[in-house]
Amino acid sequence: MDTIFKDRNGEPIFVLGLQSHNSSNGDREMLRRSIEAVKSYHGNTLEVPVYWYQLEPEEGVFDLSMVDSLIDQVRDAGLYLIILWFGFSKNADLTYMPDWAKRDKKRFKLAIKADGGVVPMMSPHCSETVEADRKAFARLIEEIRDKDKNERTVIAVQVENEVGLYPADRDYSKKAQSDFDIGVPEELKGIVLEDSGASMKDDSWYGRFGRYAHEAFSSWYFGRAIERIASAGNEIYPELPLIMNTIVGEVRQEVGGQSYSSGAPVGRTIPIWQKAAPSIKCFGADIYMQDMESYMRTCRSHLKNGNMLFIPETGTGGEGFALNHIHAAADLGAIGICGFGAESTVKSDGTLTDAAKKVADSFEILSLMAPVIKKYGGTDRIFGVTQKEFQTYKHVKREKYHITFNFTTRNEKGALLGRNMRIGALLNDDPDAFDRRGRAVVFEASPTEYYMAGVGFAARFLKRTDPDDHFPTRTYQSRAATELTAFTIEEGHFGADGSWVCEFVRRGDEIDCGAFLYPGIVLRVVLNPDSCVAEDW
């Protein structure tokens, strides 16, 4: 897996975590709840905002105590930290700017709508805003470097939060209009936005980007503003990755400024942003769609031009997200997934809410498989399996074997699996152990060796016949062509270095009902493809 997230030894990190609520930083109890929630989710990372108005309460006067305390608290908990810089933009709003900047309307200019009204967002064409943000951001990065460079608790910093203009497609101020009239910069030569209808007859924004002219224009100038800020951080601490999040553009009519904030680094405009802000290493979408089609479409739209798939915000509860996260990591090679609202996932007694448990199950699966995801993520050797509505089984065809995942929620709970020792003990302790929406991450180490973690299913293996086999039923009707003659079926886990650690070997009754999965384990299945081949004797 190619990733921007690395530990202090330069080893890759597969990020699984949660994001605190917007105003949690500075409240140790809220952060404690966030940290405990991440651990309950089997995560390794906490995302927490740092606010410009607190970091620079008076112009030129900086208070970094909140940053130091945050790093200490997360480091003591044994987690990684992604700091979110809430500067001039938070969800296309200026809410986290310092009061001294908000008051000075002559220096710090709001964007203007087409009707002459203002948008509650600073204009990217206002150099005073950008320079003031740049100075504060540079001070933040200096503190992170001095405090954390050796430990590397902080593995990335997000620059601003969901930039863009809403409800407006661009800034119509005199300065912005002057910039618009200049036309498309040379840096965007060759960039084409699909379905723009652009005539390409000249280098005006309309000529080059047609119906998306205003969105492209806004994206370029927001990108240049962000680059001015981010480059200051890169100069100070180049080893620290800088990232951005974005509102999702794959919604409703997909019109910038109406369906979502115009100028944001949505899937459509990523090529523009990559040219405008090269200091940003990854553009990640905040995906809150529960239906799999929309979720996966948004993921794919951000996998372009070498942009890695990182999901900095998403849902923390419910079956929809529980299934979607599996596919994002296993099938699309996501380098990290973080759910939003850590404190809201736990009840007052510290336990997870019922909705949160569903996503936590998926995070546990991903955590168990993280060592192989880090090594083979994004390849066809890892794949996800999830149970769609009304689905009783899922068939997967691999090179040497058919694999059938029989989902236990669509059968009498546990009955499909028989009453062997392991299942009996599980059902005695938890009658609902197998009453979970089926899902798994599967790693094919070789055509005859599989590792899988998941919940809610039992896998059955059947050897595929050779193309020139004239008697295929000899194989397909033979129980010797299944997992019953496997060399070994083992429960265990991966060590930190990816080595296999066996904890229990299944034989006899424990393999009679298929390769069943339950929470908290990885299952290793080593098949014997020659066992069904008869020998003359």
SSE blueprint and pairings:
Layout: E1 15-19, H1 28-40, E2 45-51, H2 52-55, H3 65-76, E3 80-90, H4 99-103, E4 110-112, E5 118-122, H5 127-148, E6 154-161, H6 174-182, H7 205-209, H8 213-236, E7 242-246, H9 270-276, E8 282-287, H10 292-301, E9 310-311, E10 313-314, H11 319-330, E11 336-340, H12 354-368, H13 370-376, E12 382-386, E13 393-397, E14 401-407, H14 421-429, E15 439-446, E16 449-455, E17 457-463, H15 473-476, E18 488-494, E19 500-506, H16 509-512, E20 515-516, E21 522-526
Parallel strand pairs: 1-2, 1-11, 2-3, 3-6, 6-7, 7-8, 8-10, 9-11
Antiparallel strand pairs: 4-5, 12-15, 13-14, 14-17, 15-16, 16-21, 17-20, 18-19, 18-21
Helix pairs in contact: 5-8, 8-9, 10-11, 11-12
Structure, explained:
With 537 residues, the chain is an alpha/beta fold. The chain contains 16 helices and 21 strands. A nine-stranded parallel β-sheet has the order 9-11-1-2-3-6-7-8-10. A six-stranded antiparallel β-sheet has the order 12-15-16-21-18-19. A four-stranded antiparallel β-sheet has the order 13-14-17-20. The longest helix is centred in the middle third of the chain and has 24 residues, at 213-236. The mean pLDDT is 95.
Radius of gyration in whole Å, from Cα? 26 Å
Distance between the termini: 49 Å
Contiguous low-pLDDT stretches (5 residues minimum) are none
* Residue-averaged pLDDT: 95
Beta-strand content estimate: 15-25%
Class per helix and strand makeup: alpha/beta
For the report, how would you describe the main beta sheet?
A: 9 strands, parallel
Output the strand order for the largest sheet: 9-11-1-2-3-6-7-8-10
Total of helices:
16
Q: Helical content, roughly?
A: 25-40%
Count of strand segments: 21
Oligomer: single chain
Shape: globular
